[in-house]
């Protein structure tokens, strides 16, 4: 089936959400924004929650804007979002309070309590997921420890995108890529019930898990009435974790490629057919998450553009307002390797003044004070490129593969300076694009589910025809070897 169609992607992030319309003309896609809205945690009674009712109202608003623009209903709708957070429903299907935000303090100290009962290495072996205190398993165990009455009353757990699929069509299922973020799911096997029973987390609340691209029930009558549609359309459980959607949309992704989803954080990894839970993968901090076509994404989470974003915020507070283009221009003309940073150092997690934190780090590691904006910006870009090289080497060691091409998606792929530095630091070809990777992956999975595309390979080819990717080739790689040795020395003595 190749006829034209429109798909609605609800692409939800932790700071903003948007509804996009993906238009398919039989050969390629175009993406247009229907509606964008802010999204953040809401503090209530000392706890941090998500305002899912507010998000739902915004999704409905986006659907009404679609109806105003197009004559017929869309071919489908799907939701992708962040991982680990969840909602609980009671036996009647009612929401048991606003879901907690992953930054809520209720999980402070919880991993240590879990590891009194379960060996952390065993947990990684069972689930393939590295420990982070925000993970679903620790959120639920905090409820067990506090005897939270909502957990006792719960009938069903739904991850955040699955909750909005439920609001749309009434089906209570969890999509596979989201399930793999929980640290409660064994890839390709199912919920890790033995682990959960050890922790007294009720397994009765766990619904069936469906594959990415599963067509669910049509949009419910009440939703159609509230948004003004005269007939229904399918809801598709896309690759609902936004990382999985983004990787699904990368043209040319193959076994010789590394992906980087580049933004505030960078997620760097490869596609595999089976998880890797070796001691080496565990010690190097890799995690296994579900991919769009039943694949496994072996991923390392690392700090991305956070340092420079926070510097930009600080400079603005001081009355120095610079665009990203201006910052990149100053970085391009600044001296090379004036400061080399470990971007994942604890110094940079949440300082009040990031520029000052970088200066203090340089002082502590016996490097010159980075006084100018250009030096700070260039140091952030160069250090991130060097971190990518470190992760690349680890990926090649863990997978026993030679990885020839680095494919960058997300907002960071627009930064030409960073892309070229990554090519130089890693001595690999870098291909950038698409920027709107998660939305592209979302609409592509809908197109497969509704028969407009045959499979992921055809979908990636269609996205390749829809966008302009840019290639960067290594230059002057020898100077980066010296800088890399300096970074390793700095990390050792930081």
Keywords:
2 domains, 40% helix, Nucleotidyltransferase, domain 5, 7-stranded mixed beta sheet
Short description:
The protein has 494 residues and is an alpha+beta fold. 40% of the residues lie in helices and 21% in strands.
Task: Write up this protein.
- The protein has 19 helices and 21 strands.
- The N and C termini lie far apart (58 Å).
- The strands form 7 sheets. It has a 7-stranded mixed sheet, with helices on both faces.
- The chain has helices at residues 52-69, 110-114, 120-127, 136-145, 149-153, 160-169, 176-179, 193-198, 221-227, 242-248, 279-283, 306-317, 324-333, 354-364, 373-399, 416-426, 437-449, 456-466, 477-493, and strands at residues 5-12, 16-24, 29-38, 41-44, 47-50, 76-80, 86-89, 156-159, 174-175, 185-186, 190-191, 209-210, 214-218, 234-237, 257-262, 265-272, 287-290, 296-303, 405-409, 429-432, 470-472.
- Helix 13 packs across helix 15, helix 15 packs across helix 16 and helix 17 (437-449) packs across helix 18.
- By secondary structure, the protein is an alpha+beta fold.
- It folds into 2 domains: 5-241, ATPase, nucleotide binding domain (Nucleotidyltransferase, domain 5, 2-Layer Sandwich), CATH 3.30.420.40; 250-433 and 454-494, 2-Layer Sandwich (Nucleotidyltransferase, domain 5).
- Helices cover 40% and strands 21% of the residues.
- Strand 1 (5-12) and strand 2 (16-24) form a beta hairpin.
- The longest helix is centred in the last third of the chain and has 27 residues, at 373-399.
């Amino acid at each position: 089936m190749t006829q034209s169609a429109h798909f609605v992607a609800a692409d939800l992030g932790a700071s903003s959400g948007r509804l996009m319309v993906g238009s398919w003309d039989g050969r390629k896609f175009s993406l247009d924004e229907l509606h964008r809205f802010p999204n953040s945690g809401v503090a209530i009674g000392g706890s941090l929650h998500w305002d899912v009712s507010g998000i739902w109202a915004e999704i409905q608003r986006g659907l009404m804007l679609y109806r105003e623009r197009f004559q017929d209903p869309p071919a489908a709708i799907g939701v992708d979002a962040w991982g680990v957070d969840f909602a609980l429903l009671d036996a009647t299907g009612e929401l048991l309070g606003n879901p907690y935000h992953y930054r809520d303090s209720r999980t402070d100290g919880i991993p240590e309590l879990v590891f009194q009962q379960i060996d952390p290495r065993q947990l990684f072996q069972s689930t393939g997921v590295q420990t982070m205190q925000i993970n679903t398993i620790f959120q639920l165990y905090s409820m067990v420890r506090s005897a939270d009455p909502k957990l006792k009353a719960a009938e069903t757990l739904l991850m955040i995108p699955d909750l909005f699929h439920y609001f749309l069509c009434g089906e209570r299922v969890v999509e596979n890529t989201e399930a793999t973020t929980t640290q409660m799911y064994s890839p390709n096997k199912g919920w890790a019930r033995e682990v959960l029973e050890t922790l007294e987390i009720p397994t009765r609340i766990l619904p069936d898990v469906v594959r990415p691209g599963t067509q669910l029930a049509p949009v419910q009558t009440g939703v159609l009435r509230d948004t003004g549609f005269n007939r229904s359309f399918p809801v598709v459980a896309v690759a609902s974790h936004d990382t999985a959607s983004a990787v699904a949309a990368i043209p040319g992704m193959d076994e010789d490629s590394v992906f980087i989803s580049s933004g505030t954080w960078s997620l760097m990894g490869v596609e595999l057919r089976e998880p890797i839970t070796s001691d080496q993968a565990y010690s190097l901090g890799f995690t296994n998450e579900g991919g769009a076509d039943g694949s496994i994404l072996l991923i390392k989470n690392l700090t991305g553009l956070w340092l420079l974003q926070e510097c930009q915020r600080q400079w603005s507070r001081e009355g120095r307002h610079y665009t990203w283009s201006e910052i990149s221009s100053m970085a391009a003309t600044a001296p090379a390797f004036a400061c080399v940073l470990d971007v994942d150092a604890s110094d940079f997690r949440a300082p009040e003044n990031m520029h000052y934190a970088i200066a203090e780090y340089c002082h502590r590691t016996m490097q010159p004070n980075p006084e100018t904006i250009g030096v700070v910006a260039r140091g952030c870009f160069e250090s991130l490129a060097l971190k990518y090289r470190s992760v690349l080497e680890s990926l090649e060691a863990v997978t026993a593969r030679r990885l020839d091409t680095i494919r960058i998606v997300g907002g960071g792929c627009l930064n030409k300076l960073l892309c070229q530095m990554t090519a130089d630091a890693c001595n690999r070809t870098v291909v950038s694009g698409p920027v709107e990777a998660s939305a592209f992956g979302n609409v592509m999975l809908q197109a497969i589910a509704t028969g407009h595309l045959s499979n992921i390979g055809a979908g990636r080819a269609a996205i390749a025809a829809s966008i302009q990717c840019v290639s960067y080739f290594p230059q002057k790689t020898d100077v980066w070897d010296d800088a890399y040795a300096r970074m390793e020395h700095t990390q050792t003595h930081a």
